[in-house]
Specification:
Order of helices and strands: EEHHHEEHHHEHEHEEH
Number of strands: 8
Shape: globular
Helix content: 25-40%
Mean pLDDT: 90
Largest sheet: 8 strands, mixed
Number of helices: 9
Distance between the termini: 34 Å
Structural class: alpha+beta
Radius of gyration: 18 Å
Strand order of the largest sheet: 1-2-3-4-5-6-8-7
Low-confidence stretches: 1-13
């Protein structure tokens, strides 16, 4: 298994690095897969009413994730082979990895990681109509604070973080999501890293099966509302556990 290239997967042609030519296909999978996630619908509750905004800003976000000069991020895709030998393979799953450990190790504690979400906000995403702004703010604040205290303050540059994982509903339970997570685990083993993530309810069984440990449940709720969702902070530590943790 390569740490930055493609790997072979039983039942699929390959797991490989996404390129900008894959952007539209990746966005199609994102928009098919993510509505199955409770926190996604909680935030983007107006997605059906304003699909043009949902497509526009999802595309812009993933364009930034995939762009080569945004090297704090790495997008991997899983492809399913065509039903017939002459048919082309198709992208059916994706994973967005925060690989800023590389620049953090290179540039030291003062390094400020790239922020694609901020770039999207400056391009009009702050006023997108498909999102519930209060719920989005709660999600981002809780997620950012949780990542900082539970992962960044503990592991510092010694972690790779799974930002988003999704599989097209028609291709679930075929090993595509697992293979994309295994890619990150392989990178972690090669570079003495922990693997961290914030799991939605539908992802928790997969990550638990792969050996991730529960760290904390984070409740997401706007103060004046009763509806809430949650995400679980989870981590997979390497064999040399003591070397992963920051010396503070």
């Amino acid at each position: 298994m390569a740490t930055d290239g493609s790997i072979n997967l039983r039942g699929a042609n390959s797991i490989r690095t996404a390129t900008l030519s894959d952007l539209d296909n990746v966005v199609d999978v994102v928009r098919s897969a993510m509505p199955l996630d409770p926190q996604w619908n909680y935030r983007f509750e107006h997605g059906r009413q304003f699909p043009e905004d949902n497509v526009k800003y999802t595309r812009l976000l993933f364009e930034n994730f995939i762009m080569p000069d945004y090297d704090d991020w790495h997008v991997m895709v899983a492809e399913s082979p065509g039903e017939e030998p002459s048919h082309q393979s198709k992208i059916v799953a994706f994973a967005v990895w925060d690989v800023s450990y590389r620049n953090k190790r290179k540039n030291g504690r003062g390094y400020v990681p790239q922020n694609p979400m901020l770039r999207v906000a400056k391009a009009g995403g702050a006023d997108r109509r498909d999102v519930n702004p209060k719920r989005q703010a709660v999600f981002r604040e809780a997620g950012s604070k949780g990542k900082q205290t539970l992962f960044d303050d503990v592991y510092g540059p010694n972690q790779i973080h799974l930002q988003i994982l999704g599989t097209h509903p028609d291709y679930m339970r075929r090993g595509y999501g697992s293979a994309l997570v295994y890619w990150g685990i392989a990178v972690a083993k090669a570079n003495n890293l922990a693997v961290s993530l914030m799991a939605s309810p539908m992802g928790i069984p997969l990550y638990t099966h792969l050996g991730f440990k529960h760290v904390k449940r984070i409740i997401l709720r706007v103060p004046e509302e009763t509806e809430e969702v949650y995400i679980d902070a989870m981590v997979l530590e390497g064999v040399n556990q003591e070397k992963l943790r920051m010396k503070i």
